[in-house]
Amino acid sequence: MKNRISYIFLVMATVGLGAVATIAAASIQAPDGETILRRVDENMGSDNKITTSIMTISGRRGSRSVKARSWIKGRTQSFTEYLDPPREKGTKMLKLEDRLWTYTPSSDRTILIAGHMLRQSVMGSDLSYEDMMEDPRLAVLYTASVGGEEDYEGRVCWVLDLASRGAEIAYFKRKVWVDKERFVVLREERFAKSGKLLKTTEVKSVERQGGRFVPTRIVFKDALKEGQGTEFVLESIEFDASIPDHVFTKASLR
Which domain holds residue 13? Predict the structure, then answer.
């Protein structure tokens, strides 16, 4: 009888340890939404960046491509100059904190983009000026919860449901698919407060650069517009670049 009781206790202890191990493994394998979102931000975080990109805008009358170079300092300062085609060459944008100016050589005018103008399209693309002004740190703008796991384009992803932290944020809710291995957002859906789908993004290519996983080809689609969307191709990116302060002044616009 004593041996039988000892055996029962041994089985119970084994099962109990197994359950604890299973729970521990599950907790390691499934971080919460806030942790995942912070990892996404950390992957792309950098004090200073210099990028060269090509934006291809597809519309009912065909497509056109615009090449640009951008200097980005922290989260509140950026300067962009369009290099090609000749019609757009010399157009510039300057972001300082929550203000955005544009300069076009054809009119030789500098314009402050504010209010309802922020919702306008950038050069006819599926991106708005409001998109350009947004803080790139998702964890600052949204709370996050894990809605499940899905395969997307052959990659295993966490599906996160994001809720805005403030009424002034452009998109009330988002749904994002985060690559579990690389902590890169591979797909995103952006919603209005009413629940209406406003925009989608799909990452078509990811490369390892500067010790980080960087989306290098993204398709943006305004759900309220016709067309095939806007493709954004990142030709080059330099992390922790040295950028002089004078770049982020209104004098640089002319």
Answer: 2-30
Give me the phi and psi of 33, to 5 degrees please.
Answer: -60, -40
If we measure between CA atoms, which residue out of 254, 250, 52, 32 comes closest to residue 161? 32
- Most confidently predicted of 3-7, 127-131, 137-141, 213-217: 213-217
Structural domain count, the chain = 2
Please write the tens of the pLDDT for every residue from 32-45: 999 999 999 998 87
Lowest mean pLDDT among 80-84, 165-169, 193-197: 165-169
Do the beta carbons of residue 91 and residue 253 sit within 8 Å? no
Distances in whole angstroms, Cα of residue 81 to Cα of each of 50, 102, 145:
12, 10, 38
This prediction's pTM: 0.83
DSSP string for 105-171: TTTTEEEEE-GGGGGSBSTTSS-BHHHHHS-S-HHHHEEEEEEEEEEETTEEEEEEEEEESSTTSS-
Q: Which DSSP state fits 221?
A: E
SS3 192: coil
**pLDDT for the residue numbered 69:** 97
Is residue 122 located within the same domain as residue 218? yes
